[in-house]
């Protein structure tokens, strides 16, 4: 929604935006809702170029017409392709700790129903009320990721020494665990293509699986610590390979000598 809003403010009049109850209800194709050519946000460099260069009035009009078409097309694409009205994303903002005071309990209940969370509803409601009213520590507010922040919230103790938040962090962690794109899947397919190439067409599935698991779990290759057994096995395989190469090279030399004798 932020991207959609950033596009609208570039070519739609402020009055048309503020009067509308929802950004999605704005008729951005109507000329009366659009800014004048002088008010369109096209960037300072473009403005300087339009003023300093020898561009005719017709060319300027064509330029601004193209700008309007671009903004309209981009907004149409966002509405058609982006999940702006998806209920899941509307309620997911409840996990944002910086929006806790404006969050709605119904958003929490939406996810408990969606995930079939086995949490006490009364306890969850009370914890959410505490969460909205409590002052969070700087350690939580300055956490690098929202999942880290919620982990720290789950460790807060009450006056009796027990965890103050039990049910609420479970629901929030469930929200954060939902994949929000297919980038991870595409990354796996890319690794498959890089490992199972045409020159390795005979590679079986088990070997490919082992390579992918090693790649995903071990991190940076030069940081991997191998055990003594792994090193011995690797060295043994290298020795066997060198023996095979040596035998093959000897056979090739003998074959070459025999060919030379026949020629003489």
TrEMBL record:
One of its GO terms (molecular function) is protein dimerization activity. InterPro entries: HATC_C_dom, RNaseH-like_sf. Residues 164-218 form the HAT C-terminal dimerisation domain. It comes from the Eukaryota. PANTHER family: BED-TYPE DOMAIN-CONTAINING PROTEIN, HAT FAMILY DIMERISATION DOMAINCONTAINING PROTEIN-RELATED. This is HAT C-terminal dimerisation domain-containing protein. It comes from Araneus ventricosus.
């Amino acid at each position: 929604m932020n991207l959609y809003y950033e596009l609208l403010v570039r070519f739609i009049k402020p009055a048309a935006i503020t009067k509308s109850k929802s950004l999605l209800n704005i008729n951005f194709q109507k000329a009366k809702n659009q800014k004048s050519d002088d008010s369109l946000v096209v960037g300072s460099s473009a403005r300087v170029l339009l003023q300093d260069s020898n561009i005719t009035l017709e060319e300027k009009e064509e330029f601004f017409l193209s700008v309007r078409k671009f903004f309209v097309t981009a907004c149409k694409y966002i509405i058609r392709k982006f999940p702006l009205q998806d209920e899941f994303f509307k309620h997911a903002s409840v996990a944002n700790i910086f929006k806790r005071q404006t969050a709605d309990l119904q958003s929490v209940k939406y996810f408990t129903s969606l995930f079939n969370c086995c949490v006490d509803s009364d306890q969850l409601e009370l914890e959410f009320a505490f969460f909205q009213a409590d002052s969070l520590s700087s350690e939580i507010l300055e956490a690098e990721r929202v999942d880290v922040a919620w982990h720290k919230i789950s460790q807060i103790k009450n006056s009796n020494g027990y965890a103050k938040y039990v049910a609420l962090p479970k629901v929030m962690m469930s929200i954060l665990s939902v994949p929000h794109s297919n980038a991870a899947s595409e990354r796996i397919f890319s690794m498959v293509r890089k490992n199972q190439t045409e020159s390795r067409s005979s590679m079986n599935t088990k070997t490919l699986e082992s390579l992918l698991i090693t790649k995903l779990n071990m991190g940076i290759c030069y940081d991997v610590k191998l055990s003594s057994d792994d090193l011995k096995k690797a060295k043994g395989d290298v020795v066997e390979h060198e023996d095979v190469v040596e035998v093959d090279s000897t056979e090739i030399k003998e074959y070459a000598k025999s060919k030379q004798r026949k020629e003489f």
